[in-house]
Design a protein that fits this description.
Blueprint (H helix, E strand, L loop, with lengths): L1 E6 L5 H4 L3 H8 L4 E6 L12 E2 L9 E2 L1 H11 L7 E10 L2 H8 L3 E6 L7 H6 L3 E4 L9 H12 L10 H4 L19 E2 L2 E2 L9 H10 L15 E2 L2
Parallel strand pairs: 1-2, 1-6, 5-6, 5-7
Antiparallel strand pairs: 3-4, 8-9, 9-10
Helix pairs in contact: 4-6
């Protein structure tokens, strides 16, 4: 799967994905990541990519021309949708990540300043995506989150494909469950006996009973047991 990211700070992406699961996927050729400098696609001799908004207001707006030129430049190598990272976009969920992972590639536009000229959305933007209701300095960090969420779902990226089924937000996973490792007793707390029993059916029932919904539940019994 190919990812093309359009940004005024393209150099931040390679270090972020040099290590870990995504880095290994790139090394194996299952994934490819290409970060493009929007300034390289500006027709202005000063490489300007932003200007003051019509109607007045604080800040600057990314101009449409460099974005259009960048998309047209990568389109022969990437037939995937053009995604705009916008705070008002549709929320990034596991279901959306799975949908996007089925695409041949993604072209991701990172906004900056006061946003992107709306003609980009009207003419070439396929979807607008948000990672949450808060303000960031630009679309680079949201783009990284999107890439990580989608890329790990591409077949061949994870070393153990079975781990996908156990992911916290995988279908039927119930948001995940408490996990424990050695030591079995630590600081007055011990791991639930059922997890040490070797009874896989009982363990599965316990995990379903203690499944989380993605947000930490308030109150309720702790799965850890105090030592007497």
């Amino acid at each position: 799967m190919r990812f093309d990211v359009l940004s005024i700070f393209p150099d931040v992406f390679e270090p972020a994905f040099r290590q870990g699961v995504i880095g290994r996927g790139i090394q194996r050729g299952v994934l490819s990541l290409h970060a493009h400098d929007l300034r390289e696609h500006s027709s202005d001799r000063h490489r300007q990519v932003d200007d003051a908004p019509f109607g007045g207001g604080a800040g600057m707006v990314l101009m449409p021309e460099p974005i259009f030129a960048a998309v047209e430049a990568v389109r022969p190598q990437n037939a995937g949708p053009v995604l705009l990272m916008e705070p008002w976009g549709e929320p990034l969920t596991q279901a959306l990540a799975q949908e996007l992972a089925a695409e041949p590639g993604l072209i991701i536009v990172c906004g900056r300043y006061e946003g992107i000229d709306d003609r980009v959305r009207q003419l070439i933007g396929d979807r607008e995506i948000s990672i949450g209701d808060y303000v960031l300095s630009g679309g680079e960090l949201p783009a990284m989150v999107l890439i990580d969420a989608v890329a790990r779902l591409v077949p061949g990226v994870l070393g153990d494909e079975a781990s996908l089924a156990q992911d916290a937000f995988a279908e039927g996973a119930g948001g995940g469950y408490p996990q424990f490792t050695r030591p079995a007793q630590w600081r007055g707390l011990k791991v639930p006996e059922v997890l040490l029993s070797g009874n896989h059916a009982a363990i599965e029932r316990w995990r379903r009973t203690h499944a989380r919904t993605g947000r930490r539940a308030r109150g309720g019994a702790s799965p850890l047991q105090r030592l007497s």
